[in-house]
Batch of 3 targets.
Target 1
Amino acid sequence: MSEESLETIELELAIMIRRITSYSSHKRIGNLDRSAYLLLHQIATNGPAGVKTLAGQSQLDISTISRQASALEQKGCLYRIPDPTDGRAYFLDVTELGLRKLREERQARKIRVGEVTKDWSDEERATFGKLLTRFNIAAIQE
């Protein structure tokens, strides 16, 4: 890969992250911040999990996931399930409210992505999605 290609990818990723963060922080997209959205999505997709497992899957510190989960629990989006094998441990699961907020957020984000890519063909959208997925998988494996 050429140095120019790497520079383009690096810069465009930085711009994309800034724009997505800007949309989210100005409440242009949905009601959940990025970390809450991703944590709810992770649990809703993979099922109940402990903080340590969630941290490993997210590649974040346990303390970070614990703080995020606590905030979502206080908002009524997550609840604790006692671990039957360890009385001190628990799993986190998504409440009906959390699922509703996740669906609403996902829909708002899809609308925004649709607006940004409205002039793209279905093939271009599919290719972009596949390349982003490939990039994110490769980033995890590093």
Note: The longest strand covers residues 78-82.
Target 2
Amino acid sequence: MQNFARTMMALTVALTLGACSGLFGGGDDDGKGLAPRTTAIGVNGYLWQATLDTLSFMPFDQVAPSGGVIVTDWHSTATAPNERVKVTIQFLSEDLRSDAVRVSVVRQEREEGGAWLSVPVQAATTLQVEEAILARARQLRVEARR
């Protein structure tokens, strides 16, 4: 019986203090910094902007916030004109988490006849794009909290 009374007392104190923190401005930025910045577009605003920033050097083919997808157009560099890449980003959650985005990279090389042939993409390439987006999203979140 004493254990039950202690447990109830601890629970009552915890709930009371939790309510007080909301009244007296306790917590991190009144909770604003912890919640994902979900915009009217239905995806996490930090991830969305981070993706646009990270891939800004590429032309965009499709930017569909309501569908939660960004697709770039084919992009080649001057140093590798016979190779091109296309990136698709799908937003899977409104949370700012690593599993909230799915990155897909397609790479093609030009054959001698001029036709483009799909070639494998190293897994590290996809991971680097994803990490760049997540790093930029974290940076945007930190900047917004200042």
Note: The CA atoms of residues 20 and 26 lie 8 Å apart.
Target 3
Amino acid sequence: MIKSIATSFLLVLAAQTAVAEAMTAADVKRCNAMAATMAPKKAEIETIQMKRDDMAADVELKGEAWEDAEIHRLVSAAHAAKADETKAAYQAAKKELMGTDQALQALARQFNHDIISYNQSCATAK
């Protein structure tokens, strides 16, 4: 009886050890997969940041062009049309910039969340 209890206890321990090792292997695989996604996401964020910065400079230039054209709006109908045209271009560029900036912020939030998840589950000693 004691022998069978000891044997079953050893079998339970062996099974738990095997499960723990399998979980560890799965955890390592998951952590490696998570780590592999970090560099491409960071590169994408940097690319979008550069695009957003270029767009911001373009929006600034279009805003200045609109202000310059707006000054002459009352001179003639052609000047008013030019002011309307530059204003439309400025507003379209602003809208596109805002969309890009929102996409960048969403991607950065997701990247930060991924880093936190990775640090909590992969970078800490258990």
Note: Helices lie at 2-71, 77-121.
